[in-house]
Amino acid sequence: MELTFYGAAGLVTGSCYLLKVGNKKILIDCGEFQERKDISKLNYENFIFNPKDIDCVLLTHAHIDHCGLLPKLYKKGFRGKIYSTTATKDLCDIMLLDAARIHEEETKNDNERLEEQHMPLRQPLFTMQDAKLVMKLFKPFTYDQRFSVTDSVFAIFRDAGHILGSASIEVFASEKGKAKKIVFSGDIGQKDSPIVKDPTYIKDADIVLIESTYGSRNHEESQQRKEMLYAVMKHAFQKRGPLIIPSFAVERTQELLYYLNEFSNHRLLPQMTFYVDSPLANKATEIFKKHKECFDDEAREVLKTDSDPFMFDELSYVSSKPDSMALNFKKGPFCIIAGSGMCNGGRIKYHLKHHLSDPKTTILFVGFQANGTLGRHIRDGDSEVLINGKPIEVNAEVVSIAGFSAHAGQSGLVEWAKSFKNSKPKKPIFFIVHGEPIESKGLKRKLDDLGFKTIIPNLYDTAKF
Question: Which pLDDT value is given to residue 139?
Answer without folding.
Answer: 98
